[in-house]
Protein backbone atom coordinates (compact mmCIF):
# COMPACT_ATOMS: atom_id res chain seq x y z
CA UNK A 1 0.00 0.00 0.00
CA UNK A 2 1.44 3.40 -1.01
CA UNK A 3 2.17 5.78 1.86
CA UNK A 4 0.42 9.16 1.59
CA UNK A 5 2.55 12.22 0.77
CA UNK A 6 3.19 15.31 2.88
CA UNK A 7 0.86 18.15 1.88
CA UNK A 8 3.74 20.60 2.31
CA UNK A 9 6.82 18.99 0.73
CA UNK A 10 5.40 15.84 -0.97
CA UNK A 11 7.71 13.47 0.92
CA UNK A 12 6.08 10.17 2.05
CA UNK A 13 4.74 10.45 5.60
CA UNK A 14 4.55 7.93 8.44
CA UNK A 15 1.48 7.08 10.49
CA UNK A 16 1.87 8.14 14.15
CA UNK A 17 -1.56 7.42 15.72
CA UNK A 18 -5.32 7.39 15.19
CA UNK A 19 -7.97 9.50 16.89
CA UNK A 20 -11.73 9.66 17.15
CA UNK A 21 -13.03 12.84 15.46
CA UNK A 22 -16.51 14.26 15.98
CA UNK A 23 -17.08 11.33 18.36
CA UNK A 24 -17.68 9.03 15.39
CA UNK A 25 -14.81 8.81 12.86
CA UNK A 26 -11.54 6.96 13.43
CA UNK A 27 -8.95 9.11 11.65
CA UNK A 28 -5.27 8.42 11.03
CA UNK A 29 -2.58 11.06 11.63
CA UNK A 30 0.77 11.18 9.82
CA UNK A 31 4.05 13.08 10.21
CA UNK A 32 6.62 14.15 7.62
CA UNK A 33 10.22 13.37 8.54
CA UNK A 34 11.56 16.19 6.33
CA UNK A 35 9.54 19.29 7.26
CA UNK A 36 7.84 18.03 10.46
CA UNK A 37 4.29 18.71 9.22
CA UNK A 38 1.58 16.60 10.89
CA UNK A 39 -1.59 15.89 8.91
CA UNK A 40 -4.72 13.81 9.04
CA UNK A 41 -5.67 11.32 6.39
CA UNK A 42 -7.72 12.76 3.51
CA UNK A 43 -10.45 14.67 5.42
CA UNK A 44 -13.70 13.10 4.23
CA UNK A 45 -15.62 14.54 7.23
CA UNK A 46 -15.14 18.26 6.51
CA UNK A 47 -18.62 18.98 5.19
CA UNK A 48 -20.07 17.78 8.48
CA UNK A 49 -17.37 19.57 10.53
CA UNK A 50 -18.20 22.89 8.89
CA UNK A 51 -21.93 22.83 9.57
CA UNK A 52 -20.95 25.89 11.61
CA UNK A 53 -17.91 27.58 10.06
CA UNK A 54 -16.85 28.98 13.44
CA UNK A 55 -17.01 26.02 15.79
CA UNK A 56 -18.96 26.18 19.03
CA UNK A 57 -15.88 25.48 21.17
CA UNK A 58 -14.11 28.63 19.93
CA UNK A 59 -14.93 30.86 22.90
CA UNK A 60 -11.78 33.00 22.59
CA UNK A 61 -12.49 34.73 19.29
CA UNK A 62 -12.99 38.23 20.69
CA UNK A 63 -9.95 38.12 22.96
CA UNK A 64 -7.80 36.83 20.09
CA UNK A 65 -8.99 39.65 17.84
CA UNK A 66 -7.92 42.23 20.40
CA UNK A 67 -4.53 40.56 20.81
CA UNK A 68 -4.03 40.25 17.05
CA UNK A 69 -4.94 43.92 16.63
CA UNK A 70 -2.17 44.91 19.05
CA UNK A 71 0.41 42.68 17.37
CA UNK A 72 -0.48 43.62 13.79
CA UNK A 73 -0.69 47.36 14.45
CA UNK A 74 2.72 47.35 16.18
CA UNK A 75 4.37 45.51 13.27
CA UNK A 76 2.76 47.79 10.71
CA UNK A 77 3.87 50.94 12.52
CA UNK A 78 7.44 49.67 12.87
CA UNK A 79 8.14 47.86 9.61
CA UNK A 80 5.47 48.44 6.95
CA UNK A 81 3.86 51.32 5.09
CA UNK A 82 1.02 52.24 7.45
CA UNK A 83 -0.68 54.23 4.67
CA UNK A 84 -0.90 51.09 2.49
CA UNK A 85 -3.73 48.64 1.93
CA UNK A 86 -4.13 45.52 4.11
CA UNK A 87 -6.17 42.32 3.90
CA UNK A 88 -7.39 39.85 6.53
CA UNK A 89 -7.78 36.49 4.76
CA UNK A 90 -10.23 34.08 6.39
CA UNK A 91 -11.56 37.10 8.26
CA UNK A 92 -14.49 35.35 9.95
CA UNK A 93 -17.16 37.73 11.22
CA UNK A 94 -14.96 40.77 10.47
CA UNK A 95 -14.14 41.72 14.07
CA UNK A 96 -10.39 42.09 13.46
CA UNK A 97 -10.90 44.18 10.30
CA UNK A 98 -13.28 46.50 12.15
CA UNK A 99 -10.76 46.94 14.98
CA UNK A 100 -7.96 47.74 12.52
CA UNK A 101 -10.10 50.21 10.58
CA UNK A 102 -11.15 51.88 13.82
CA UNK A 103 -7.51 52.78 14.53
CA UNK A 104 -6.92 54.13 11.04
CA UNK A 105 -5.65 51.33 8.81
CA UNK A 106 -7.07 50.73 5.31
CA UNK A 107 -8.00 47.14 6.07
CA UNK A 108 -10.20 44.76 4.04
CA UNK A 109 -11.97 41.45 4.67
CA UNK A 110 -12.06 38.21 2.69
CA UNK A 111 -13.64 34.89 3.69
CA UNK A 112 -15.51 32.61 1.30
CA UNK A 113 -17.05 30.52 4.09
CA UNK A 114 -18.22 32.97 6.77
CA UNK A 115 -20.66 35.90 6.77
CA UNK A 116 -19.16 39.35 7.28
CA UNK A 117 -21.02 41.07 10.13
CA UNK A 118 -18.64 43.75 11.42
CA UNK A 119 -16.72 44.93 8.33
CA UNK A 120 -19.49 45.22 5.78
CA UNK A 121 -18.60 47.44 2.84
CA UNK A 122 -14.90 46.57 3.11
CA UNK A 123 -14.88 43.18 1.34
CA UNK A 124 -12.14 42.39 -1.16
CA UNK A 125 -13.16 39.98 -3.92
CA UNK A 126 -10.94 36.99 -4.68
CA UNK A 127 -11.28 37.83 -8.36
CA UNK A 128 -9.42 41.13 -8.08
CA UNK A 129 -5.67 41.35 -8.66
CA UNK A 130 -5.15 43.76 -5.77
CA UNK A 131 -1.77 43.69 -4.02
CA UNK A 132 -1.61 44.60 -0.33
CA UNK A 133 1.20 45.73 1.95
CA UNK A 134 0.54 43.00 4.55
CA UNK A 135 -1.86 40.06 4.57
CA UNK A 136 -3.04 38.64 7.90
CA UNK A 137 -4.35 35.10 8.21
CA UNK A 138 -5.28 34.16 11.77
CA UNK A 139 -6.26 30.62 12.81
CA UNK A 140 -6.61 29.36 9.22
CA UNK A 141 -3.45 27.44 8.24
CA UNK A 142 -4.46 24.45 10.39
CA UNK A 143 -7.70 24.26 8.35
CA UNK A 144 -6.06 24.12 4.90
CA UNK A 145 -6.64 20.85 3.03
CA UNK A 146 -4.16 21.92 0.30
CA UNK A 147 -1.79 24.24 2.21
CA UNK A 148 0.67 24.78 -0.66
CA UNK A 149 -2.06 25.86 -3.08
CA UNK A 150 -3.56 28.15 -0.44
CA UNK A 151 -0.16 29.61 0.44
CA UNK A 152 0.66 30.36 -3.20
CA UNK A 153 -2.71 32.13 -3.55
CA UNK A 154 -1.82 34.31 -0.56
CA UNK A 155 1.60 35.14 -2.01
CA UNK A 156 -0.08 36.54 -5.14
CA UNK A 157 -1.80 39.08 -2.88
CA UNK A 158 1.19 39.86 -0.63
CA UNK A 159 4.66 38.52 0.08
CA UNK A 160 4.27 39.68 3.67
CA UNK A 161 2.04 37.30 5.63
CA UNK A 162 1.34 37.55 9.36
CA UNK A 163 -0.43 34.44 10.63
CA UNK A 164 -1.36 32.58 13.77
CA UNK A 165 -1.36 28.84 14.34
CA UNK A 166 -0.07 26.82 17.29
CA UNK A 167 3.26 25.02 16.84
CA UNK A 168 2.71 21.32 17.48
CA UNK A 169 4.98 20.27 20.38
CA UNK A 170 7.96 17.98 19.89
CA UNK A 171 7.72 15.11 20.76
CA UNK A 172 4.31 14.88 19.13
CA UNK A 173 1.56 14.64 21.80
CA UNK A 174 -1.13 11.99 21.78
CA UNK A 175 -4.67 12.99 20.67
CA UNK A 176 -6.03 13.60 24.18
CA UNK A 177 -2.92 15.46 25.33
CA UNK A 178 -3.14 18.54 23.08
CA UNK A 179 -6.23 20.71 22.79
CA UNK A 180 -5.30 22.12 19.38
CA UNK A 181 -6.02 18.87 17.57
CA UNK A 182 -9.67 19.93 17.87
CA UNK A 183 -10.94 16.37 17.78
CA UNK A 184 -14.35 17.52 19.05
CA UNK A 185 -14.99 19.73 15.99
CA UNK A 186 -12.79 18.05 13.35
CA UNK A 187 -11.79 21.27 11.56
CA UNK A 188 -8.04 21.20 12.29
CA UNK A 189 -6.34 18.88 9.80
CA UNK A 190 -2.73 20.11 9.53
CA UNK A 191 -0.18 21.14 12.17
CA UNK A 192 3.10 23.02 11.78
CA UNK A 193 6.46 22.91 13.45
CA UNK A 194 9.06 25.66 13.22
CA UNK A 195 10.96 23.70 10.58
CA UNK A 196 7.78 23.45 8.49
CA UNK A 197 7.67 27.23 8.13
CA UNK A 198 11.44 27.38 7.64
CA UNK A 199 10.97 24.98 4.71
CA UNK A 200 8.26 27.23 3.23
CA UNK A 201 10.39 30.34 3.71
CA UNK A 202 13.38 28.79 1.92
CA UNK A 203 11.24 27.39 -0.88
CA UNK A 204 9.61 30.76 -1.64
CA UNK A 205 12.54 33.07 -0.88
CA UNK A 206 11.13 34.62 2.31
CA UNK A 207 12.33 35.45 5.81
CA UNK A 208 10.65 33.70 8.74
CA UNK A 209 10.12 35.21 12.19
CA UNK A 210 8.13 33.71 15.08
CA UNK A 211 7.32 34.21 18.74
CA UNK A 212 8.09 30.51 19.15
CA UNK A 213 4.53 29.42 19.76
CA UNK A 214 1.62 30.83 17.76
CA UNK A 215 2.42 34.12 15.96
CA UNK A 216 4.49 33.89 12.79
CA UNK A 217 5.61 36.22 10.03
CA UNK A 218 6.70 35.20 6.53
CA UNK A 219 8.03 38.25 4.74
CA UNK A 220 10.33 39.49 2.03
CA UNK A 221 11.65 42.07 4.50
CA UNK A 222 14.81 41.37 6.48
CA UNK A 223 14.62 43.01 9.88
CA UNK A 224 17.77 44.25 11.63
CA UNK A 225 18.98 42.19 14.56
CA UNK A 226 19.19 43.73 18.01
CA UNK A 227 22.49 44.54 19.73
CA UNK A 228 22.34 44.20 23.51
CA UNK A 229 24.75 45.87 25.93
CA UNK A 230 24.33 44.75 29.53
CA UNK A 231 25.04 46.65 32.73
CA UNK A 232 25.63 44.39 35.72
CA UNK A 233 27.66 43.90 38.87
CA UNK A 234 30.97 42.07 39.03
CA UNK A 235 29.24 39.15 40.78
CA UNK A 236 26.79 38.65 37.88
CA UNK A 237 29.18 39.26 35.00
CA UNK A 238 30.17 35.60 34.56
CA UNK A 239 26.52 34.58 34.12
CA UNK A 240 26.13 36.63 30.96
CA UNK A 241 29.61 36.57 29.45
CA UNK A 242 28.91 33.62 27.15
CA UNK A 243 25.31 34.53 26.25
CA UNK A 244 24.99 34.65 22.49
CA UNK A 245 22.72 37.73 22.46
CA UNK A 246 24.85 39.95 24.68
CA UNK A 247 27.45 41.86 22.65
CA UNK A 248 28.99 43.93 25.44
CA UNK A 249 29.03 43.81 29.24
CA UNK A 250 29.67 46.91 31.32
CA UNK A 251 30.34 46.48 35.04
CA UNK A 252 29.11 49.15 37.45
CA UNK A 253 32.09 51.21 38.58
CA UNK A 254 32.43 54.45 40.46
CA UNK A 255 35.34 55.76 38.43
CA UNK A 256 35.41 58.35 35.66
CA UNK A 257 36.12 55.79 32.91
CA UNK A 258 32.85 53.93 33.52
CA UNK A 259 30.72 57.05 33.18
CA UNK A 260 32.58 58.04 30.03
CA UNK A 261 32.12 54.59 28.45
CA UNK A 262 28.42 54.77 29.28
CA UNK A 263 28.14 57.79 26.97
CA UNK A 264 29.96 56.21 24.02
CA UNK A 265 26.86 54.58 22.50
CA UNK A 266 23.46 56.09 21.69
CA UNK A 267 20.82 53.41 22.37
CA UNK A 268 17.34 52.92 20.96
CA UNK A 269 16.17 51.55 24.32
CA UNK A 270 17.48 51.58 27.87
CA UNK A 271 15.66 49.27 30.28
CA UNK A 272 16.19 49.04 34.04
CA UNK A 273 14.51 45.89 35.43
CA UNK A 274 15.12 46.71 39.12
CA UNK A 275 11.82 47.08 40.99
CA UNK A 276 13.21 49.70 43.41
CA UNK A 277 15.39 52.78 42.93
CA UNK A 278 19.05 53.13 43.85
CA UNK A 279 21.48 56.04 43.65
CA UNK A 280 23.56 54.21 41.04
CA UNK A 281 20.49 53.34 38.98
CA UNK A 282 19.24 56.95 39.01
CA UNK A 283 22.67 58.28 38.01
CA UNK A 284 22.85 55.78 35.13
CA UNK A 285 19.36 56.74 33.94
CA UNK A 286 20.38 60.41 33.96
CA UNK A 287 23.58 59.90 31.99
CA UNK A 288 22.82 57.09 29.51
CA UNK A 289 21.93 58.30 26.01
CA UNK A 290 18.79 56.54 24.74
CA UNK A 291 15.72 57.41 22.67
CA UNK A 292 13.48 55.61 25.14
CA UNK A 293 14.13 54.86 28.80
CA UNK A 294 11.92 52.29 30.58
CA UNK A 295 11.79 51.23 34.23
CA UNK A 296 9.57 49.35 36.65
CA UNK A 297 6.96 51.85 37.83
CA UNK A 298 8.03 53.57 41.04
CA UNK A 299 7.31 57.21 41.88
CA UNK A 300 10.87 57.67 43.19
CA UNK A 301 12.52 56.90 39.83
CA UNK A 302 9.90 57.38 37.09
CA UNK A 303 10.87 61.04 36.61
CA UNK A 304 14.12 59.88 34.98
CA UNK A 305 12.40 57.57 32.46
CA UNK A 306 9.94 57.85 29.57
CA UNK A 307 7.81 54.92 30.73
CA UNK A 308 7.17 53.03 33.94
CA UNK A 309 5.90 49.45 33.64
CA UNK A 310 3.38 48.39 36.28
CA UNK A 311 3.97 44.88 37.63
CA UNK A 312 2.35 42.81 40.35
CA UNK A 313 3.98 42.99 43.75
CA UNK A 314 6.74 40.42 44.12
CA UNK A 315 6.08 37.36 46.21
CA UNK A 316 7.81 36.94 49.53
CA UNK A 317 11.34 35.59 49.15
CA UNK A 318 10.21 32.36 50.87
CA UNK A 319 7.67 31.70 48.11
CA UNK A 320 10.14 32.59 45.38
CA UNK A 321 12.78 30.21 46.65
CA UNK A 322 10.25 27.48 47.19
CA UNK A 323 9.00 27.84 43.62
CA UNK A 324 12.55 27.61 42.30
CA UNK A 325 13.31 24.51 44.34
CA UNK A 326 10.05 22.89 43.28
CA UNK A 327 11.32 22.92 39.68
CA UNK A 328 14.26 20.66 40.59
CA UNK A 329 14.44 17.11 41.86
CA UNK A 330 16.59 17.36 44.97
CA UNK A 331 15.34 14.10 46.41
CA UNK A 332 13.51 15.68 49.32
CA UNK A 333 9.89 16.55 49.93
CA UNK A 334 8.46 20.00 49.30
CA UNK A 335 5.41 20.91 51.36
CA UNK A 336 3.20 23.92 50.62
CA UNK A 337 2.33 24.29 54.32
CA UNK A 338 3.88 23.72 57.71
CA UNK A 339 3.50 19.99 58.46
CA UNK A 340 0.91 19.08 61.08
CA UNK A 341 3.13 16.88 63.24
CA UNK A 342 4.10 16.81 66.89
CA UNK A 343 7.76 17.62 67.43
CA UNK A 344 7.65 16.48 71.09
CA UNK A 345 6.61 12.86 70.58
CA UNK A 346 9.76 10.76 71.15
CA UNK A 347 8.24 7.91 69.15
CA UNK A 348 8.36 9.99 65.98
CA UNK A 349 11.39 10.75 63.90
CA UNK A 350 12.14 14.45 63.75
CA UNK A 351 10.85 16.54 60.85
CA UNK A 352 13.39 19.20 59.96
CA UNK A 353 11.91 22.45 58.62
CA UNK A 354 14.24 24.81 56.74
CA UNK A 355 13.06 28.39 56.33
CA UNK A 356 14.57 29.89 53.20
CA UNK A 357 15.27 33.59 53.58
CA UNK A 358 17.31 36.42 52.17
CA UNK A 359 20.10 38.15 54.02
CA UNK A 360 23.13 40.37 53.70
CA UNK A 361 26.67 39.05 53.25
CA UNK A 362 27.35 39.43 56.95
CA UNK A 363 24.50 37.02 57.73
CA UNK A 364 25.44 34.31 55.26
CA UNK A 365 26.65 30.99 56.56
CA UNK A 366 30.04 29.66 55.52
CA UNK A 367 29.88 26.65 53.20
CA UNK A 368 31.19 24.29 55.89
CA UNK A 369 28.25 25.17 58.14
CA UNK A 370 25.77 24.17 55.43
CA UNK A 371 27.64 20.91 54.78
CA UNK A 372 27.55 20.07 58.47
CA UNK A 373 23.83 20.81 58.69
CA UNK A 374 23.01 18.67 55.66
CA UNK A 375 25.13 15.79 56.95
CA UNK A 376 23.29 15.94 60.25
CA UNK A 377 19.88 16.00 58.60
CA UNK A 378 20.64 13.10 56.29
CA UNK A 379 22.02 10.92 59.10
CA UNK A 380 19.53 11.63 61.85
CA UNK A 381 16.19 12.35 60.28
CA UNK A 382 13.50 10.74 58.22
CA UNK A 383 12.69 13.55 55.85
CA UNK A 384 13.38 17.15 54.97
CA UNK A 385 10.50 19.56 54.51
CA UNK A 386 10.96 22.97 52.91
CA UNK A 387 8.13 25.28 53.85
CA UNK A 388 6.65 27.51 51.18
CA UNK A 389 3.51 29.08 52.58
CA UNK A 390 0.48 28.77 50.29
CA UNK A 391 -0.75 32.01 48.81
CA UNK A 392 -4.04 33.47 47.66
CA UNK A 393 -3.87 35.48 44.46
CA UNK A 394 -6.60 37.80 43.25
CA UNK A 395 -8.13 38.07 39.79
CA UNK A 396 -10.44 41.04 39.28
CA UNK A 397 -13.34 41.03 36.85
CA UNK A 398 -13.55 44.55 35.45
CA UNK A 399 -14.39 46.18 32.12
CA UNK A 400 -15.56 42.76 30.90
CA UNK A 401 -12.06 41.27 31.26
CA UNK A 402 -10.20 39.10 33.75
CA UNK A 403 -7.28 41.03 35.23
CA UNK A 404 -4.75 39.52 34.99
CA UNK A 405 -5.67 37.19 32.12
CA UNK A 406 -3.04 34.59 33.07
CA UNK A 407 -1.89 33.64 36.59
CA UNK A 408 1.03 31.44 37.64
CA UNK A 409 0.66 29.65 40.98
CA UNK A 410 1.91 26.57 42.81
CA UNK A 411 -0.06 23.50 43.94
CA UNK A 412 -1.95 24.33 47.13
CA UNK A 413 -2.41 27.99 46.19
CA UNK A 414 -5.81 29.65 45.95
CA UNK A 415 -7.29 32.06 43.41
CA UNK A 416 -9.96 34.53 44.53
CA UNK A 417 -12.03 36.10 41.76
CA UNK A 418 -13.63 39.46 42.67
CA UNK A 419 -16.40 40.81 40.45
CA UNK A 420 -15.94 44.59 40.08
CA UNK A 421 -17.84 44.59 36.79
CA UNK A 422 -21.29 46.03 36.16
CA UNK A 423 -23.00 42.65 35.68
CA UNK A 424 -23.08 39.10 36.97
CA UNK A 425 -20.42 36.66 35.80
CA UNK A 426 -19.33 33.09 36.40
CA UNK A 427 -16.05 31.26 36.82
CA UNK A 428 -16.53 28.21 34.63
CA UNK A 429 -13.64 25.80 34.06
CA UNK A 430 -13.41 24.24 30.61
CA UNK A 431 -12.68 20.87 32.25
CA UNK A 432 -15.90 21.06 34.31
CA UNK A 433 -14.18 20.98 37.73
CA UNK A 434 -15.58 24.33 38.87
CA UNK A 435 -18.60 26.44 37.89
CA UNK A 436 -19.69 29.22 40.23
CA UNK A 437 -21.74 32.34 39.61
CA UNK A 438 -20.51 35.70 40.99
CA UNK A 439 -22.87 38.59 41.62
CA UNK A 440 -21.83 42.21 41.35
CA UNK A 441 -19.23 42.95 44.10
CA UNK A 442 -19.20 39.24 44.95
CA UNK A 443 -16.26 36.82 45.01
CA UNK A 444 -15.47 33.10 44.81
CA UNK A 445 -12.35 31.10 45.65
CA UNK A 446 -10.82 27.87 44.38
CA UNK A 447 -7.75 26.03 45.65
CA UNK A 448 -5.67 24.21 43.04
CA UNK A 449 -4.16 20.97 44.26
CA UNK A 450 -2.68 19.56 41.04
CA UNK A 451 -0.29 20.93 38.43
CA UNK A 452 -1.73 21.77 35.05
CA UNK A 453 -3.25 24.42 32.80
CA UNK A 454 -6.77 25.48 33.83
CA UNK A 455 -8.72 27.50 31.26
CA UNK A 456 -11.91 29.24 32.36
CA UNK A 457 -14.50 31.72 31.14
CA UNK A 458 -17.72 33.53 32.12
CA UNK A 459 -20.89 31.92 30.78
CA UNK A 460 -22.43 35.41 30.74
CA UNK A 461 -19.70 36.61 28.34
CA UNK A 462 -17.99 33.56 26.81
CA UNK A 463 -15.33 35.73 25.17
CA UNK A 464 -14.10 36.61 28.67
CA UNK A 465 -11.38 34.00 29.21
CA UNK A 466 -8.51 33.44 31.56
CA UNK A 467 -5.95 30.78 32.38
CA UNK A 468 -4.37 29.53 35.62
CA UNK A 469 -1.01 27.78 35.26
CA UNK A 470 -0.27 25.55 38.28
CA UNK A 471 3.46 24.75 38.17
Question: In summary, what is this structure?
Answer:
The chain has ten helices and 27 strands.
What can you see in these coordinates?
- The protein has 471 residues and is of the alpha/beta class.
- The protein has four domains: 61-219, Rossmann fold (3-Layer(aba) Sandwich), CATH 3.40.50; 228-309, no CATH class; 317-387, no CATH class; 392-470, Immunoglobulin-like.
- Helix content is 21%, strand content 30%.
- It contains ten helices and 27 strands.
- The strands form seven sheets. It has a six-stranded mixed sheet, sandwiched between helices.
- Helix 2 packs across helix 3.
- The protein is globular, with a radius of gyration of 27 Å.
- The two termini are 46 Å apart.
- The model is unreliable at 313-348 and 355-360 (pLDDT under 50).
Number of strands: 27
Strand order of the largest sheet: 5-4-6-7-10-9
Q: Could you give the distance between the termini?
A: 46 Å
Shape: globular
**CATH architecture descriptor name of the largest domain:** 3-Layer(aba) Sandwich
> Which blocks of ≥5 consecutive residues have pLDDT under 50?
313-348, 355-360
Strand content: 25-35%
C-alpha Rg, in Å?
Answer: 27 Å
The CATH homology group name of the largest domain: Vaccinia Virus protein VP39
Helix count?
A: 10
Instruction: Give the % helix.
Output: 10-25%
Biggest sheet: strands, sense, closure?
6 strands, mixed
